[in-house]
Amino acid sequence: MTAVLTTSGRIAIATAIKARTAHMAWGTGDAAWGTTPPDPPASATALVAEVGRRKAQQVRFCTPDANGTIYVPEGRFNITDTPTRYLVFQFNFDFTEASTSIIREQAIFLDTVAAAGVPSGQFYLSPSEVANPGTLLVVQRPAPIQRAATTRQFFENVVVF
Hints:
The chain is mostly beta strands. The protein contains one helix and 14 strands, in the order αββββββββββββββ.
């Protein structure tokens, strides 16, 4: 007999994840991937070539809504205060963060631990400033993004549980 993960169980998982610290890591990946990177393996625990990570600006519950203000490839969503099985993670990378890199991979990590001596209010960490990367929650390899010091990068990711 097979057990089924219920909607209330998925909401419980989303609620537990929302309570944890989240960072988005980004990396240069492998230049040989070209403009169409291969899908990352489900067994991944790290990026191929991380250049840094930023703490989430917000992690909120959301709900599907055809007229929603959050628009991602999977559809449209709206923020809600009611726990759901959908979480939206929002990250804002500053102008100078990886400003000359070509970003080919991104991942959301839970429970990253900064290295000793890193100020507690520092939201962007280089790989050398990470003592423990934490747990890789989701990973993706989008079309390459050429970073520039004149551009802030904003990411919204909806994760469905």
